[in-house]
Amino acid sequence: MAEALHRLAALVPDGRLLTRPEQLAAYESDALTAFRSRPLAIAIPETTDEVVALVRFCHQEHLPFVARGSGTSLSGGSLPVSDGIVIALNRLTRIRRLDPIQRIAVVEPGVVNTQVSAAAAPHRLHYAPDPSSALICTIGGNVAFNSGGAHCLKYGMTANHILGIKAVLPTGEVVEWGGPSREQIGPDWCGLFTGSEGLFGIALEITLQLLPRAECFHTVLAGYRTLEQAGDAVSAVVASGLLPGALEIMDALALEAAVAAVHAEYPPGCEAVLIVELEGTREAVAADRVRLDAIIAASKPVEMRPARDAEERLAIWKGRKSAFSAVGRLSPDFIVQDGVVPRRRLGEALRRIGEMARETGLRVANVFHAGDGNLHPLILFDGRQPGALERSEALAGRILKLCIEMGGSITGEHGVGVEKLAYLPAMYNAEEMDCMLRLRAAFDPLGIANPGKKFPRAGAPALQQRGLHPLEKAGVISRE
Amino acid sequence: MPEPLTPATPAELAEAVRSHPRVLAVGARTKPRLSQVPGDVALLSTRALRGIVEYEPEEFTFTALAGTPVREIAQALAEKGQYLPFDPLWLESGATLGGTVCAGTSGPGRFRFGGVRDFILGVRFVDGLGRLLRMGGKVVKNCAGFDLPKFLVGSLGRYGALAEVTFKVFPAPAARLTLKLKASGAEAAARVLTEAAASRWECEALDFLPDGRSVGLRLAGPATALEAVSREILARWPGQVLSPGEAQTIWTELREMRWAHAGGALVKVAITPNVIAALCTAVESLDSTRLHISAGGNVGFVSLSTGIPPAALQERLRGLGLPAVTLCGNAPLWCGARATPAIAGAVKQALDPQGRFPSTED
Predict the structure, then answer these.
(1) Of A65, A237, A440, B41, which has fewest CB within 10 angstroms of its CB?
(2) Which of A160, A210, A281 to mutate to test the interface with B (most CBs of B within 10 A)?
(3) Are A415 and B143 an interchain contact pair (Cβ–Cβ within 8 Å)?
């Protein structure tokens, strides 16, 4: 293997192949810190040609590889494999083309999500998908995991905004699918590739559709005595025929965390806060806000706070988007879940999650995209306590099974990764799993592209992490 | 030949696929070129495979059998104040849901929120091994497994036979308003399309009409807002607000392809606004060819009169590097630029190892 690594180093010169233990440590985990695994090496390409050469090398040598952007996967999607390399794409950060007439951007995989909207802003355009990690996550990772965000009900997920993909497949074949047009001819290859969790190869160049920025927003924050009341308000908004850009709920524990973390202010005495946002032309928002405000007022909130200006709107979103990391301050460790249930069963799902949490003796904070039934229960635990991680994972598993029973999904936007490996077969039967494995084999006959994600891999599983993140142990990062 | 060729349930569809060595599922055949396949391929009709399986208005989703006419679905949705935002084509002509997915055809309304691919959530389909498989989900958000439902959009039934489809739907807008704007030629029209597409107006549909002189611009939303926005648009370009009747005529004509030559080839071309003028020039040289530019300049429908050799159109589209598929009439199936990467064959082999469905070249 040392000989192979030597040849690998020639593909990424100037010290861009990392092999020393202290260098590898930084890549052992992603945002699912409960898992870690040390790879053989980290290759840091600077051009897409180098990425192609690396993948072709891996194919030739039967060497497993894991592509990595910013490592923000919440399902362990970029967890390294111990017998393979990590291809770190953070230096592929060029926006190759931004065309305000066609309203597209052509980007390399390492471009950070919000940088696309920043580049498009002078043209009053933006890139719609906005995962909570948008400030650091990359478009390549968004494509691999079909990332979502708070605006999926109206605008869809990442896949709905991908027009073209140039990719290197695990066989080394370079393909170009789709293009600058919003319409496609033939099967939707970009749709198939998006969300394939790195199993179908590495996107080298991605064509994104840009949308005009909405002219006007109306964002309302409403506090409720109970989660159920907030849920009822969501049902009333949905039944009204309005199509909000976002419908989000945070529960008491999540609120407590956001208050502590970003000094968010919420109406006192609330068990739940609902955030609803309308967007559109100023004329349309002026007409629709009257209806929305009446619906919210009728839903008996403790208090209702429409954002009076852009600053207040941003403050509302800052509290919401910081919720995950904020909850991290309440507890040494936590697991974020990502199940989906039919919207009308949200209340029932939350009640049962609460019951299960009490039975297990674990605290669960809930932040969720109420508009599309996407739950994000955050299970808090202390990894230093014996058995705590196992209890949390068992609870997480019960929540996923609940989502399947209710006719939903085990993952709305985080992907299966390593975290939900055991549960994909609960959603799909043996023949359906076989069909997906046949597809995988068509793309990757050797099974070298991100092995052990989405489908279990024979051989050594990743080590599980207890307590602090490896970087915290090494004193590189801290949570204050 | 084994019977029946008209399965009425997903299980019967699977059985029918298994009992034919070569087979293709067809709906109402509103896009007849797509099922013009070699004679040894048995055509399975989905006309009995119809009906809405589930419709939960509060979930913004429905599930229907593949042979369900889209018109039936549109009516059921309208009763609950909802709609399919991609404006399905050949609605009144009887197009089925499955056919719409396999053909990957979206109408003018796809401009606002996207096309078929953006609203499909899940499928049950029969693969080449005759297995009835469920892929995707029934909830509006799901990323578990590979997104085969999206892949099957535009797949022409060559990778599997659709049994059932789940879609996302939206609440219907309170009101609509159509403007007909003057555009003297392709370049002027392209400028109107791109400027309107990037504007604050949030147009629902934005099409360069087959008359070659006007742009149809449709707004949707609260009625008071539409009036204000339309005044601003008419201050920018000359044109007029159409009466509801006139508007319906225009959009129905486009949706049902009544503007096209009867019996001639009808070709869908993926384009961008900057090639509109070049495409117009290329097709103008083919006598009496008609052209409808839809979706803000992202798709072109080219209608050839029966006397024009289709190869001439194929040559021009290839010259422009534009991919295209023939939906009706006698022209090559893939009528434009085309790449066939090795992976396409490998995926066909994975889903249909015995070549039970027609080849992607047929």
Answers:
(1) B41
(2) A281
(3) yes
Contact A329, A252 (CB under 8 A): no
Give CA separation, A281 vs A221, A278, B30, in Å: 21, 10, 37
Q: For residue B343, give the nearest of A148, A175, A432 by CB distance.
A: A175
Contact of B40 with chain A, judged by CB distance below 8 Å, is answered with: no
* pTM, entire model: 0.95
A400 lies within 8 A of chain B by CB: no
CATH number assigned to the domain covering B175-255: 3.30.70
Domain boundaries, chain A: 2-90+440-473, 95-212, 216-256+270-308
Q: Which residues of B touch A246 (CB under 8 A)?
A: none
The strand order across the sheet containing A202-209 reads A95-99, A104-107, A202-209, A162-168, A174-178
The two most distant CA atoms of chain A are separated, in Å, by 71
Of A192, A283, A441, the CB nearest to B229: A283
Q: How far is A315 from chain B (nearest CA, A)?
A: 25
User: Among the residues of A82-225, which ranges form H helices?
Assistant: 113-120, 139-145, 152-155, 189-193
Question: What CATH number does the domain located at A2-90+440-473 have?
Answer: 3.30.43.10
CATH number at A95-212: 3.30.465.10
ω before B88 within 30° of 0 (cis)? no
Three-state DSSP state, A144: helix
Please list the pLDDT of chain A residue by residue as tens digits (480 residues): 788 899 999 999 999 999 999 999 999 999 888 889 999 999 999 999 999 999 999 999 999 999 999 999 999 999 999 999 999 999 999 999 999 999 999 999 999 999 999 999 999 999 999 998 999 999 999 999 999 988 898 999 999 999 999 999 999 999 999 999 999 999 999 999 999 999 999 999 999 999 999 999 999 999 999 998 998 999 999 999 999 999 999 999 999 888 888 888 899 889 999 999 999 999 999 999 999 999 999 999 999 999 999 999 999 998 888 887 788 788 888 888 899 999 989 889 999 999 999 999 999 999 889 999 999 999 999 988 999 989 999 999 999 999 999 999 999 999 999 999 999 999 999 999 999 999 999 999 999 999 999 998 865 444 554 444 444 444 444 433
CB contact residues (below 8 A), chain A span 156-185, against chain B: 156-157, 159-160, 169, 171, 173, 175-176, 179-185
* Strands ordered across the beta sheet of A41-43: A17-18, A41-43, A85-88, A65-68
Work out the angle at residue B100's Cα, subtended by the Cα atoms of residues B14 and B16, and round it to the nearest 5 degrees: 15
Following DSSP, what letter does each residue of A201-247 receive, concatenated? -EEEEEEEE-EEPPSEEEEEEEEESSHHHHHHHHHHHHHTT---SEE
CATH of domain B44-171: 3.30.465.10
